Structure formats: structure tokens, C-alpha cells
Amino acid sequence: MSIAHYACGSQDHGLNRRRFLRQSLSGVAAGGAIAGGLGTLTHGAAADQLKSQDMRVVVFNMHGGLSQLESWDPKPGTKTGGPCRAIPTSVPGIHISDLLPYTAKQMHHLCLMRGVNTAEDDHGKGAYLMLTGRRQSAAAEYPQIGAVAARMLNDESRGLPGHIVVTPGGGGGKGNEAAYLGPKYSSISLGGSKPPPNTTKPDAINDEAEARRHEMRRRVNQEFLSRRRTAITDAYTHSYEQALRLMERKDVFDISKESAKDQERYGNHDFGRQCLMARRLLENGVSFVQVTHSNYDTHNENFIFHIEQLGEFDQSFATFVADLADRGLLEKTLVVVLSEFGRTPNINLYYGRDHWSKAWSVLMAGGKMARGAAFGKTNDEGTEVVDGQVDHGALFHTYLRAVGVDSSQSIAVDGRQLPIADPAAAPVWKVLT
Amino acid sequence: MNSTIDITKTHVAYEWKHDRPLIACRMSPDGLQAASSSEDSSLQLWTVPTGQKKVLAGHESWVHALSYSNDGQQLISGGCDGRLIWWSAKEETPSIVRKADAHSGWIRGVAISPDNTTLASVGNDKIVRLWSVATGEKICELPGHERHIYSVLFHPNGTQLVTGDLLGKIHVWNLADRKLERTIEATPLYAENKGQNAEYGGVRAMALNIERGELIAGGTHKATNPFGAVHEPLVLRINWADGVLKKSHSCEGIPGGLVWRVQWLKDGTAVGVSGGSTGGILLFFNDAQEKEMHRFKLPTLARDMDIHLESNLVATAHYDNHLRISGMFAKA
User: Domain for residue A209, yes or no?
Assistant: First the structure.
């Protein structure tokens, strides 16, 4: 698999494409066009075949560290169990926390990974390894799953970005998310359920003037690119063209187009609207959507905060999963619910739980994942994994395999073969069909 | 035992250890028994002053809400399993008198009417429920709160019920027509943290003093990072007649503090118990000053208290598994 070669013989990965695109959108909407042209990457026949499978990924990032004991691996009646109880699910023998009654009814679609041990209790480092499948190091940066999915799965002919992050305030997604894949695959961030900003052409500019401006931009840009093409110029020009396509397809980001009944089913709160936005984006072919639900860093009063947060999460998420299944999208969509780590089995003096990465849980569903399954096991008090231990590397391989990507392959970047997943790890084959 | 009250001489008189951290506690009306709940979902009955312990199993989750019947014969507990249980507290072998699946989700508070006929329960399902103490039959439901309800008390004349919630709203219900009569705003006890997408605080505790015409409400404020226990204890002194805030009693130097319970002493002193990173503290307030007039540092973090007014003893439930009984008078 190859990637673009540049006139300078190098690649610059330092550009934050999300910020870049926001600025570009602003420029386009204001008619302030700068010369540019769409850079293209050669993906090869295998990549084309993969894209034809039309697979997608959605990640629910439970920011701060979701407690596995109050969600996917309850231990009621034990020293560490806390006040929450376990309830049966739609799969006999599998119980989850009573804080997730709606999700329990969708268990037949889901696959619990209860033996996660990532050995990293720092927020930033934990988030990095869960999204990249590698431990953070000064020696190298690795692309996040969103960038890899955009690179591998996105069909650019749809005119939509391949990597979208939805957060309540539109923040997040900072940093070098795409690493060596290049800024083209970094995320576009949506604030809540709002479309990207500056996607409406000002009334003062008519269509003819707009077309002339862009034609001029493209000509001048082409002239520049013939001499000075870099990853940055590619990303820059790509962003302009993508911005134009986004303006044409901005309805995709408008959840008011969804029925009032659906809006009610998902819940009248930010997270419900974000889930509905995610469904809408996936239905329109966006290859990767990340929805952030904040916050679970409950060192204090862990239980009442999990009641609040999961009370919001549960119905919206369960509705989302049920809708994907009903619409035939779950076959093509990997769903992952992850955090940077879990929370301590020990309950502290504030009724809180602290950071705990030695034994926690991740939920997956859809694509080629097994359905109605619970893989891995922790001991009675949830302090250690006793069976089916997996780490971030194995999970990353599994994400990719679940959407049909051969996670053992490499991407050629400037003559170097860079494995897309940690070669020291392997997929969890037992949960893949 | 010397029972002449002197809060400046408060001292731990007894401490008894259970197997797990304690959550809540109450003293029986005769002062001869104390009840506690713990993180193993059991209740404990302690004989005062010997410390003899009996363990009661019946709840499937933790218990935050406890109340003795006014005659002291029964203990009523409300659990995070949504269940109310009546216990024969004074029998040699205490047993379950009856159970009721009362709430969807946690029960946070229970109170018994002055005439001992009606039990009120509140919890996370935002509904106030009234029950017959004698039969356990539900009398009525009072919807109206918009968030979890944390605290409940009866007016001493039995005609009104007072309930406090997460938003800092204190509802006063007329029990004759079972309608909401008025709402008192205790919003300084509520914090919304948009960055953490969290609401925190609320009216964790209340106590009404009709002679003084004052309601006190306890909880927390300055919750800049509620997930990290960055907040401080706060007690509001409210004029009962019109609901106007008379004084905010804030307490310095108690990081992570939250007032779990407030009560009145006979002399009109308001008392609160706070946990915090520095441990458990009993806080004593008068109406003349905003800061506490006295504080008594308990050996470890406390999560609840109950004062027995006749003996001037105060029971406290602690994270270090101990129930402590302190005397608010000079040591003999």
C-alpha cells in the first residue's frame, strides 16, 4: 500500500487538520478563496475492495474512565461491589449493572471484553493507547483508530469526511491524531449536534462569482503544487475541496431532519442528540464517528455520578444499537465503548473509585464481532483478570479485523513499511466471526 | 453519665468496630440502642453503652436511610435496592416485620410523622411516597421534584412534609390536600459543572426548629471539581415563614467537605457533621456568626450522625468501620 510522494521528499504531519478545516471553511464561506486542488492518494485494488465493503466504525469514548463495576462487570454483594446490582440481559447468563437496563435488552447484539489489562493509569496515556493500540513513546507517533478507519474505509466520492469526532462543546481531537497517515485523516470536530461552522455561502456572493473564485483558486494552486507539493499543501487543498462538498451536503449534519419521534427516542439531551447525529452520519457513509460522553472520572461519589451519567447514556446508546440492527447497519458497523481505563475495585472514603487499568472492560458490537458474548473474566472482587486477558494492542487489532481490515499489513510511508497495528500483538480471534 | 451539655468538651465516649465502612446511623428514642448501615449491605444494632452488636441482613444493597419509629420498637430502613424494611429492633433476635418495594432506584431518606402513623420516603426516582407505619401500605405519591431527592422531614405539627433535592429546591407539601404548598430555594447548595457534565450538591440534610422559626439545610458549595472532591461544607439558615435565607454558614479548612446531616440541640445550636480530606468534623453554629462557633474533630472521616437530645450523645458513622458515640459534655 502506498501513500503520496512529495516534491520535497518528506512529509509534514504537524498540521492540525481540524483547525485547518475550520479556518478553511470560514474562508470558503466568506469567499476568501486561496488557490488549491485536491490531492489524491493511491490506495490500490485491495483498498478499493475494502472500501466497497462499506464498513464503518463508531467509538463511544467514556471520558474520564467508566467504572467497569457499575457497567459491564458488576460484582454485587462483594467487598468491592458497591451499591449497584446486576441485572439479567437478553442473553441468558450474562448480567450487567442495573444502571444499564435498556442496554441489557440489547445484549444479544453486544460483545463484552471483561479481561482488559492496559497497565496505564494516566488519563492522557491511557486515552492514547486505547485509541492507537500502542503505548505512547517519544520515539514515534501512531495514528488513532479514527484516522486509520478514514484511511482504510472512507469512500471519498461521498463528499464527506471520514473521521468525525462529536463532543458536547466541539472540542477534543487535538494533537496529531493521524500521525504518519497525514493530516488529511485527522478528525473534524462537531460541537454537540450542530453542523460544522461556516458551511453556508454568504448571500452577498452569487453562484457565478463563487464558481469563478474557486476556478481561480484551483488554477493558482495547481501552479504552486507543480513545484512545491507537500503533505501540508495536500491537506490544505483537500480541505478546501472537502469544505465545498460539505457545503453541498450540510443536510447530513442536520438532525432536525430526523423525525420528532426519533429525537424523543434518543433523549432530549446532548448525548442523545449526539447519538442521533452518529446514526445519521453512519447512514450517510461516514467511515468513523467518535462520540464522547463526559465525564466518568469519579474519585468522589462514584455511584451517584454513574447513576447520572449512565442514566443519560443507557437509553440513547441502546436506541442507537437497536436502530443499527434494525436497519441492517450493525453488520457493517463496529461499535466500541471504551475509556482510558476503568476504576478501582476499592471504594475510597468519598464513595469514589480511582483509576484502575489492571482489570476492566470494553464493549464491542457489530461488524464481524461475536454477538451476545462475554469474553474474559475477572476474579470475584474484580481486582485481577483471571481469564481471557487482552490489552490495547489486541483490542486495536480486533477493531480492524472486525471491519475487514487485515491488521497485520503495513503502510508504506516514504519507503518505510509502518505496521498499522502493533506487530507484537494479535487480534482476539475468539470474538471474531 | 454527666449529661450537662458543653459542646466544647465533646469527646468520643465509645467506639465499636464493624467489618466494613459504615454509611448511616441513628440512635433509638430511649438512647439505649444505635443502628448503623455499612458497605456490606447489612445493618448493625449496637447496645449502648456495652457495644454488643447484632447484624441484620435483608437488603440487597447499601442503606442510606434509617429511622426509628417514635416508640423505638421498630427500625425502618430504606436501601439502594429501592426497598423499605421494617425491623423489630428491640427484640432479642430482631427480625423483618415487613418489606415494601418502594422506589425505583435508591431510597435516600425516610422520616416518621410525629404521631407515628405515617412514613415518608424519598429517593432517586424523584417521587415522595407516604406509607402507613402500621401496615406498610402505600398512602400516596407526591411527584414534583425534578432531580434526586436527598432529604425529608415532617413538620412537628404533622401537617406538612418537607423534602429537599439535588437542585437545592426544598418543597413544602400540605399533607391535608397532598399538594405542593411552596418551594424554598436553597440553590447555594447546588452546583452545575458543565465541563464535567455533572450536577452536584443538593440538600443533603435538613432540620426544622419551629421555636426558632428556622430551617437549616446542609450540603456543599464551591464545587469547582466535584469529581475530585473539590468542594467545601455549607449550612444554610433559612427563615421558615417566608423561605428567605438568613445566613450561610461556611467552614474554612475542610477540603472535600460535605455536610451529611444537620440537627438542632435543645438550646438552638445547629449541628452538622462533615466529611472531608482532613477527616470527620462536628460543626456547631449559632445565629450570631457565619463561621462555626465550635468544631470537634472526629478521629476519622464520618458520613452520618444522630444526636440523642436527652443524653447529649451523638452517634457518628465512620469510613474506618467504626460507630462512635461522643458525649457533648465534660468527661467524668
Answer: no
Number of domains making up chain A: 1
Determine whether the interchain pair B229/A295 forms a contact, defined as Cβ–Cβ distance below 8 Å. no
The amino acid at residue B165 is D
Strand order in the sheet with B294-297: B258-264, B270-275, B281-285, B294-297
CA distance A294 to A64: 7
**∠ CA B219-B220-B226, rounded to 5°:** 130
DSSP A267-278: -SSHHHHHHHHH
* C-beta atoms of A352 and B148 within 8 A: no
CATH number reported for the structural domain that contains residue A149 in this entry: 3.40.720
d(CA A100, CA A62): 14
Q: Which of A349, A351, A354 to mutate to test the interface with B (most CBs of B within 10 A)?
A: A349
ipTM of the complex: 0.95
B60 CB neighbours in chain A (<8 A) are 76-77, 85
| Separation CA A146–CA A331 (nearest Å) | 19
pLDDT tens digits for range B121-143 = 999 999 999 999 999 999 999 99
Per-residue DSSP letter, B227: G
Tens digits of per-residue pLDDT, B200-229?
A: 999 999 999 999 999 999 999 999 999 999
* CA distances for B36 relative to A208, A340, A406, B116, B321, angstroms: 79, 37, 58, 21, 10
Has residue A122 been placed in a domain?
yes
Which amino acid type is present at position B258?
L
The number of residues making up chain B comes to 332
